[in-house]
């Protein structure tokens, strides 16, 4: 056998080997697939991928109910939502006194072009109808519906025509009209949040918090051993307030004490005004109700550009809840006081870094209801323009 015959023989062996392996692979794959087929159930469960199909009657109930719920998120009251086509109530002034009163009848709802429903929602001037439209559009998208908004150029009223996305003709199945009115107002308030004890937050995290675009103020740390935290606050240009204590002879850490001579505490007031001339104000803490020193100190600060206030201006919020539950409790307290008539409230709170992040992420829930947030400097200016809000603050506080 020469060299050429040897090479050809080796090639034929390789071809035969590959062919045998291919046959073995095909046989094994056949038996593998057959085994899987036997183990598969006769009826397959597609519940994880099947989209529930709602009936027309179900959709007629779900869609208007969800639209109402979305409206409530923006501070819209239930009595401002009604079915379109209602009959107006009779003018009570035109009814003669000698005529007996007829029993009140519920408004008669008239059908409107055989629509599923037709709503008319009256909203205050400060409600952004475009944002409500956006939320409703997102909700409708989940159910394979959409809406088209038409704004009245004269009054800004918005009409939403709802249709099924699968319908190429975009036939209107329901509509919602938002009608602006200057006769109604949402239950909302001006809020100022003051962060206390920020020196307990790690400096790197504190710097991030102070850079937040949210409007709030902080209490300037005054501890000598945490002068670094005070420096961080001052360098941030964040709106800040000073806390100063009034105490007795035994309260050595208090800025003002009953054993101080008049010249001494007046000098303390004057030096504070010059040293912290950028402060938004001074909060005088008087836990032991020391009088008349407390009143004298407030009057002395009034002689300078740095104003002082009693600590009763604050709502001291320090619940037992932690983390996200603390933020939920804060929002619930703000809402509760607002419903009782509060229109301008200043909260003193203690947040750690995580709690502040929760606050920052959730604050939109109050903002979309009409609540406005300000620094201590800003909210005092607003109170000067509207003194009634300060009276309501004292009532709710």
Description of the structure:
With 397 residues, this protein is an alpha/beta fold. The chain folds into two domains: 56-86 and 108-181, Beta Polymerase, domain 2; 187-397, Glycoside hydrolase/deacetylase (TIM Barrel, Alpha-Beta Barrel), CATH 3.20.20. It contains twelve helices and 14 strands. The protein has helices spanning 3-39, 56-73, 129-142, 203-210, 227-236, 262-275, 293-301, 323-339, 353-362, 364-367, 376-385, 388-396; strands spanning 81-83, 118-124, 145-151, 158-164, 174-181, 190-195, 217-219, 240-247, 256-257, 282-285, 308-310, 315-317, 344-349, 372-374. The strands form two sheets. Strands 6, 7, 8, 9, 10, 11, 12, 13 and 14 form a nine-stranded parallel β-sheet that branches. Strands 1-2-5-4-3 form a five-stranded mixed β-sheet, with helices on one face. Strand 3 (145-151) and strand 4 (158-164) form a beta hairpin. It is flat and about 110 Å long. The termini are far apart.
């Amino acid at each position: 056998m020469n060299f050429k015959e040897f090479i050809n023989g080796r090639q034929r062996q390789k071809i035969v080997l590959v062919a045998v392996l291919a046959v073995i692979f095909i046989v094994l794959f056949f038996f593998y697939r057959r085994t899987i087929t036997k183990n598969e159930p006769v009826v397959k469960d597609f519940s994880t991928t099947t989209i529930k199909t709602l009936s027309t009657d179900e959709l007629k109930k779900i869609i208007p109910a969800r639209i109402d719920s979305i409206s409530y998120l923006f501070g819209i009251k239930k009595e401002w939502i009604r079915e379109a086509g209602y009959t107006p109530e009779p003018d009570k002034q035109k009814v003669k006194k000698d005529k007996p009163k007829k029993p009140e009848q519920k408004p008669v709802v008239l059908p409107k072009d055989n629509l599923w429903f037709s709503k008319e929602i009256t909203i205050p001037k400060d409600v952004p109808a475009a944002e409500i439209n956006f939320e409703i559009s997102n909700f409708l998208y989940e159910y394979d519906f959409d809406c088209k908004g038409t704004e009245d150029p004269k009054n800004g009223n918005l009409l939403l025509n709802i249709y099924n996305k699968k319908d190429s003709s975009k036939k209107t199945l329901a509509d919602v009209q938002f009608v602006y009115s200057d006769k109604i107002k949402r239950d909302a308030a001006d809020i100022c949040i003051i962060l206390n004890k920020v020196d307990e937050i790690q400096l790197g995290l504190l710097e991030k918090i102070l850079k937040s675009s949210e409007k709030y103020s902080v209490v300037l740390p005054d501890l000598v051993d945490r002068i670094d935290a005070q420096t961080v606050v001052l360098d941030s240009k964040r709106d800040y307030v000073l806390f100063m204590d009034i105490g007795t002879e035994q309260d050595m850490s208090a800025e003002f004490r009953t054993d101080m001579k008049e010249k001494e505490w007046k000098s303390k007031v004057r030096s504070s005004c010059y040293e912290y001339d950028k402060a938004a104000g001074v909060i005088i803490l008087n836990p032991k109700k020391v009088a008349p020193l407390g009143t004298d100190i407030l009057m002395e600060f009034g002689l300078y550009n740095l104003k002082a206030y009693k600590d009763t201006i604050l709502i001291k919020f320090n619940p037992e809840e932690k983390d996200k539950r603390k933020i939920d409790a804060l929002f619930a307290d703000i809402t509760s006081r607002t419903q009782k008539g509060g229109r301008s409230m200043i909260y003193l709170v203690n947040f750690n870094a995580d709690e502040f992040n929760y606050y920052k992420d959730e604050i939109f829930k109050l903002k979309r209801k009409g609540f406005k947030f300000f620094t201590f400097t800003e909210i005092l200016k607003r109170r000067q323009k509207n003194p009634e809000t300060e009276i309501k603050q004292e009532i709710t506080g």
